[in-house]
Amino acid sequence: MISSKWTPYLFLLPAIVGLGIFSIYPAFQAFFSSLYSFSFVNQTNQFVGLQNYISEFTDPVFWNSVKVTLLFNVVINPLQIVLAFGLAILLNKRVKGIGFFRSIHFIPISVSLPIASVLFMIILNPDEGLVNSVLTSLGFHAQPFLHSSHQALWVIVGIATWKGVGYWAVFLLAGLQEVPSALYEAAALDGANKWTEFIKITFPLMKRSLTFVAVADTVANFLLFAPMYIMTDGGPNNSTDVLMYETIKNAYVNSNMGSADALIVMLIIIILIIIGVESKLLKPKH
Amino acid sequence: MENKKVMGKLVSYLLNIVLVFIVVLPLLFSITSSFRPHEDIFKYISPITWKTFIPTDITFSAYKDIFTESGFGRIFFNTFFVGIVTVALGLLVNSMAAFAFSVFSFRGKKIVFFIVLLTFMVPFEVIAVPLYKVVSSLGFIDSYSALIIPVVANGLVIFLYKQFFDDLPLSIFESARMDGASWWRIYYGIVLPLSKPVTITAGLLIFVGQWESFLWPLLATHSDQYRVIQVAMSTFSQEHATIWNQLFAASNLTIVVPAILLLFLQKYFVNGIANTGVKE
């Protein structure tokens, strides 16, 4: 590390000013409003301390959301990271036509989640949807998909993964480009097989890119709510009612900003714990 | 050995082709529907035939209508303008910050970096209302500035650049300092040119973020002249909820435009810095 009195601060200045005004200050406002509650009697915000938090803790809906959020994330994060890494490795192969395949596999990046949600909702419609039409023509039973409390969450995992894997693969592909090809040539001369190559060369050198993807993907999935908002309203039977959806509902439907802010503070604490664990697991050893 | 190579190639082609189907099939429905006359959209879904996937009476009227009647030309211009300016400013501001975090040790570094990480964990929907007040007091509401300036500094992009810069050997900075280069010169003349792959991914991250942003443009602008794509899509789907072919045409356009951009960008992933011998 290099010490210099003023230089680092000058380089930081524009970003810190921007984040300070447009992110940190509004976030503090949101945090403080989690300590207030709107009183309809006085038409003002009243300081209630931790009351917004306590009323969440005693609400079974909150605990259901915690359960759904954790279940959703325990599945979707490892799934997306592993698939994105696999896709990146596949797309890093210098075979003929790889440019074409890359272009196709990256298309879902440009499909925004609301559009993907609407599209899949039409395709997965139990009565006149394309997927059920295919299933019945192949002799399978039609499925309820988003209308079943056993399937809905996993359908959303599928849709978000369809949309997300290509995106995260881009970051890993950029990382793979920086692994010196000389290392692989040397390994090949030593007669190393593909698996040893992966464990000894690719994985260790990809730890920084993987940390970025793990952290960013985890945050994105914990904050995901558009598919639930558009397709399921948290249902059926609250089976897709993640914490972020509860937050949005409290903030914009029930106009209960204080409780939405309390929810988000707790959500951020959960995220911090999880990405702390992830960064420990992926810490480069040198 | 030769056999093994051929097998490897075969497997990777096979995987690629399977993936192509997974990616393309859901979109194919939207593409064919947009070329169908409105009354035919749901006609061929069941039973499945080739007509389910290939339109028979091809018509471009849906596309023509959304440009002439709904003014999508202006909307595309706005979205691109906002996206490109944000990318240009964002790459500069955030890579500078990451450079400071990666290269220097300074007082308060840990806590400042932690706060930077926190900024991308706070969902935008939650700070939207307080942010509106800030932007309003700066007089930006209903202007391009409102859409661009608040999102230039981006904690996630700083983090992305930092992960990359952390791998650069400090020795190149030290020797450049010995040669009398200023820090700005080192950042601009040495570090940035080495950072092509990460800069492309960072640019993509920023552009996609702007292309998909909906809630903020909805709050921060209200006149038609600043309308961007997702806001337009949402109003469009509310007003034309039953004109399915136009709805599909509009959503296809929002997909195709960034997809074409990616088509050009993917070329750059073949020339990393791996073989320049700078990284250890």
From TrEMBL, chain A:
Every ABC transmembrane type-1 domain range: 66-276
An example GO BP is: transmembrane transport
TM region(s), chain numbering: 9-28, 70-91, 103-124, 152-174, 210-230, 262-282
Subcellular localization, as worded in the UniProt entry = Cell membrane
Q: Name one GO cellular component term.
A: plasma membrane
Topological relation to the membrane, as annotated: Multi-pass membrane protein
**Pfam families, sorted:** BPD_transp_1
Q: Which domain of life is it from?
A: Bacteria
| Name by which UniProt lists this protein | ABC transporter permease
Supply the source organism for this entry.
Answer: Pullulanibacillus camelliae
The gene for this chain is msmF
Automatic annotation (TrEMBL), chain B:
- Supply the source organism for this entry: Pullulanibacillus camelliae
**Protein's membrane topology:** Multi-pass membrane protein
* Broad class of where this protein is predominantly found: membrane
Q: Which UniProt keywords are present, listed alphabetically?
A: Cell membrane, Membrane, Transmembrane, Transmembrane helix, Transport
**Any one GO biological process:** transmembrane transport
**Protein origin, superkingdom:** Bacteria
State a GO cellular component annotated for this protein. Answer: plasma membrane
Q: Give TM regions.
A: 12-31, 80-104, 111-132, 144-165, 186-208, 243-265
Q: Does the keyword Membrane apply?
A: yes
UniProt-listed InterPro entries: MetI-like, MetI-like_sf
Fetch the Pfam families from UniProt: BPD_transp_1
Q: Which PANTHER family match?
A: ABC TRANSPORTER PERMEASE PROTEIN MG189-RELATED, ABC TRANSPORTER PERMEASE PROTEIN MG189-RELATED-RELATED
Q: Which family does it belong to?
A: Belongs to the binding-protein-dependent transport system permease family.
Q: Describe the location of the ABC transmembrane type-1 domain by residue ranges.
A: 76-265
Location of the protein in the cell: Cell membrane
Record's protein name = Sugar ABC transporter permease
